[in-house]
Amino acid sequence: MISRSILFASVALTFTAALATPAVAEEGMWTFDAFPAEQMRSEYGWAPDQAWLNRIRASAVRLTGGCSASFVSGQGLILTNHHCIASCLYENSNDTDDLLKNGFVAANTRDEKKCAGQQAEIVTAITDVTGDIKSAIGTMTGEALIKARDARIAAIETESCTDLAATRCQVVSLFGGGQYKLYTYRKYSDVRLAWAPEDRAATFGGDPDNFNFPRYSLDASFLRAYENGKPVATPNHLAWSPRAPKEGEITFVVGNPGSTSRLFTQSQLAFEREVRLPMTVAVMSELRGRLIRAMEESAQKEREGLDLLGGIENSLKVYIGRTTALNDPAFTDKLAQEEEKLKALSKGNAAIGDPWTAIDGAMRAYRANYTALRFTQPSGDLYGYAQALVRAAAERVKPNGERLPGYTDSALPLAEKRLLDERPVYPWLEDLQLGWSLSKAREYLGADDLDTKLLLGKESPEALAQRLVSGTKLADPAVRKALWDGGQSAIEASDDPMIIFARSLDGRQRELQKLINEQTGGPLAAAGAKLADARFGAYGEKLYPDATFTLRISYGKVGGWAERGRNVPFATTMGGTFERATGNAPFDLAPAFAANEARIDKSVTYDFVSTNDIIGGNSGSPVIDRAGNVIGAAFDGNIHSLGGNYGYDPLLNRTVSVSAEAVQEALEVMYPAPNLVKELAAKKR
Amino acid sequence: MISRSILFASVALTFTAALATPAVAEEGMWTFDAFPAEQMRSEYGWAPDQAWLNRIRASAVRLTGGCSASFVSGQGLILTNHHCIASCLYENSNDTDDLLKNGFVAANTRDEKKCAGQQAEIVTAITDVTGDIKSAIGTMTGEALIKARDARIAAIETESCTDLAATRCQVVSLFGGGQYKLYTYRKYSDVRLAWAPEDRAATFGGDPDNFNFPRYSLDASFLRAYENGKPVATPNHLAWSPRAPKEGEITFVVGNPGSTSRLFTQSQLAFEREVRLPMTVAVMSELRGRLIRAMEESAQKEREGLDLLGGIENSLKVYIGRTTALNDPAFTDKLAQEEEKLKALSKGNAAIGDPWTAIDGAMRAYRANYTALRFTQPSGDLYGYAQALVRAAAERVKPNGERLPGYTDSALPLAEKRLLDERPVYPWLEDLQLGWSLSKAREYLGADDLDTKLLLGKESPEALAQRLVSGTKLADPAVRKALWDGGQSAIEASDDPMIIFARSLDGRQRELQKLINEQTGGPLAAAGAKLADARFGAYGEKLYPDATFTLRISYGKVGGWAERGRNVPFATTMGGTFERATGNAPFDLAPAFAANEARIDKSVTYDFVSTNDIIGGNSGSPVIDRAGNVIGAAFDGNIHSLGGNYGYDPLLNRTVSVSAEAVQEALEVMYPAPNLVKELAAKKR
């Protein structure tokens, strides 16, 4: 379950800065304007042409919930993972109708359920704006560099997208500041749920099987994009091909990998290994423990906590996997050697200078500020609403170019949607998260720290959390809307305790961000541009940038791997589920599987692995064959892929996908949806 | 709160193997037969003579609960920390009489409360048996070495202590196998509680203040040793000196540091940093979270869980501090340099050879076996009872020299006492710990691992834990006694589910231990002896061994330290408590402090720091002045002392103690105990 990790990506600073050596076979999350067709042709004897790539790009969907997807019919039908829409099922559930547990099959389009915060986005253009941004930056440094860059980005985005209801413009920094590209999207901000299996069918094996293979998971679902209350017409879509994948066949995975750190320098990797990861694993493990226990208190809490727990456990597995990778000298020595090689190749080039030393300094400063930055950011949806409201009120009155990045004209529509969409709030869960985060703040900052005193005053973390959660009215979307519409005067006049709390933290949070911009963000952006030049100079232009939750394509092939002397097969069958089932959670059969055992074709290929290079954010990505048809949906990586944040190992890293064949079987037998079967079969060609 | 950490020391293998460079000033946990008087004299202008050392040694007490202490009257009165006897308060409490919360003052000796599992031990002789053990080992390697060593140790212990009711003999390996010493103890297996303040007085500041300074903690208590139902006469005892410590004055801390790893080689340190610590922090943080939440469910659970939570939080802080130290290149580079220096000094010495490479191999093997070893050991008292019963039954029928170390004739009396002493069992707490440990086993071993299947069968961790805890009768000491007395046939015939479970794991646990002995323990013991020789050859004999929970003496002086440009003062006053109190836990005043504020002398020195070198196990150690009088009880280290497991930094490492003056104030004002005041004042000289 890859994508949930991005929900828990800590602190917002983007770190992409240095550059690894050229991609090995199958390594690479390539942008659509720089696909390495020649390299692929030399390895595979075939590669797609630009027309093929354009066709696929037009069918690829980014979901603002943090996942990837694709159009698979002419009526806006979207294939993605079950875990990408679990929150939607959860938010549309109540004590008497648990959609997460029972699954959901819409009888017809009128029956489809809105998904809060979810928006579908399709890339319509990619434009290079590197020169424009770089000249705005000029020779600036530190905070000034960040401000100038962000102001120019805000201006380009505003100029390029005038229809904010239907389009979205986003400038992304690639290669850590080496390139800037403007991505233009067609967006659909009304996304509804059409079909989902039972949670147990999607999460069979649960956390123990997550990131493992062989696997037996129906991690698939269908959404539909709407506009003006009607399904949208999507002539650009992938053809549905419910067949078994073949070992060795070429596969493409097209989606939005969230973030990788393959271009990190040694001091950035050291920060991860020595500071960020140990702290993250410790505090998140405690949250996991608190939540596991709380969910045992009642069936209602069990249901209400499930979505958050899934996210936490997924993220933890990611962070533990990264810890293991960065504590493996065989893995890290390779990264160190790559850096040494680039240094040697760049030696004496005055235009490049020594960005590595600049990054060392930026990271030393970050170490000094990190704990304060991290722990002055309390957790929970209600605090998140309050913080967004307080910030938006202050930012919206500023000129566009002077605002914080999330509050520019181009960013505001999604910020507003996320804030105002209706979704349930469970006070006990808010209390648990907020109390935990405040108690960890005191633990890591120390009881005598000024930031601890700012957060807590004389209250205990638990009492403060309880007071804020029980007193705030922000769970009500109408209250949030009134504060959003009321702007700064409404925020200043508010006596909502959560708003008061967010107001009290705002100044310090801005001060810390400014400090980080000056000492770390600015230096990293400047050094990143130099490192990109070093890399292009040493290896040419055929490189892929670190992931940025923008559209990428990975090529590879269906195939298992060898591990500790045994071969892991490339696929499982539906029949295997029944052999693996123990009757005890999370290895208990989904009821629809148990009920239909005799009717299920056990020879159907269930899940399969391929060598495609993906990471969190890619969840829901279509797996596409050479013909351009969708034969599956990627939903996970194997355990070795967790080190993939820092480097790809072609021998071991694998993408895990659910086959279109298995989804078809589910649509026909376990969770019958004859309308969808018909819609998917209506091939466009 | 130092000593609790040893409760959570993972896996039993002793690792002490290599040797650091000679001690810097104040560094060192010295054995009483090798005190560096000359070195101290050169630094301080004074050092104790052997008569002084002998007198102190005869007053020093080891508590089998994992702490240190001292006799402070002629009637067996023992000074130790509150946190060392918190379990005793907890086990003597119930819903209507919460001794932990309320404190306890015995009206007279008849009123004193037995402490389960607690035994007081006083060293009466230290004998060198190095030659004896080394010739038994000869040229053996691997498992054979371990067996021969342990057999000879068992024989020496049995020969040397014939009165098992009043004496205990224990051979310890020092310098990782470089020396073997026989410690003979006078023991008192009936230890009772005489006086303890309220928990909040001892734990004011709670986990946030733990390992910090300035500090305001009354972490002191009094026990009494009994024999044949009467207080024992202890003519050898320290004089009580309830005065303020003076900055710069010489202090000795005499106690039993549990374990240090200062002699670890680079590959042993790498194992800690890369494998053991990350895993430990992750799983223990989750346990902490589960327990925190469970304790919020009722006042009863709050009370029943407090002791375990305190232990977990203390250990976690230790492990997180060690993680920080081992992730600090400035700290670890020094350790690496010391190793390089020793290698250079030993170069070409054929008798030493290359023990470093041998240790690398032993640690590679340990990495391969560690996860299985760790997670085939479930948690909880009830499982612990079952495991001890199953093992003891099998071991006791073997000849003494062939038994596992904990089950030799010399070890059995304490094992039996620990097993049969009456103590409360809280099923929900057992369930929580066992379920957690089984679920972590599945997570780290993997759902398909054979050890996971051995542990769980087809059950879920939660269901299995629930079934075992609800079905077992082992909470009843009489049931345990019957199984202990019944021996192997009783164990084999038992249908107690926990016994059945322990039986099912026993074979695999033994197999793993054998594997570890062969591939890691044996090679480490052989290499450790070589490294000790290298160290003695390079630096002479004036060295101190790693801590082994045997009696040590550390010298130093009263003094604060400088940190981030500010000076941390050497002491706090009782008045400071009232300034620091916020009214919210854990910064709420103990009721007896609040009630007596007007009567408390606020100028009394409360807690103080000194440069003495201590670690977990030292808790409760007397702080002794030059005259040999007790002026405090050590209860903690500062935050920098957490790296002290691997190396001592004289600029930053500090011991934290509660002053005898503060304890006296408490005995007179807050928790009046006129009998004890009188008893303590009856100076022997």
Automatic annotation (TrEMBL), chains A, B:
User: Which leading EC class covers this enzyme?
Assistant: hydrolase
Query: What is the residue range of the signal peptide feature?
Result: 1-25
Which molecular function GO terms apply here? dipeptidyl-peptidase activity; serine-type aminopeptidase activity
Q: What is its EC number?
A: 3.4.14.-
Return the InterPro entries for the record: Pep_S46, Peptidase_S1_PA, Peptidase_S1_PA_chymotrypsin
Q: Name the GO terms of the biological process aspect.
A: peptide catabolic process; proteolysis
Pfam families, per the entry = Peptidase_S46
Keyword terms, alphabetized? Aminopeptidase, Hydrolase, Protease, Serine protease, Signal
- Family membership: Belongs to the peptidase S46 family.
Chain's role:
Catalyzes the removal of dipeptides from the N-terminus of oligopeptides.
Name the UniProt record assigns to this protein? Dipeptidyl-peptidase
Gene source species: Allopontixanthobacter confluentis
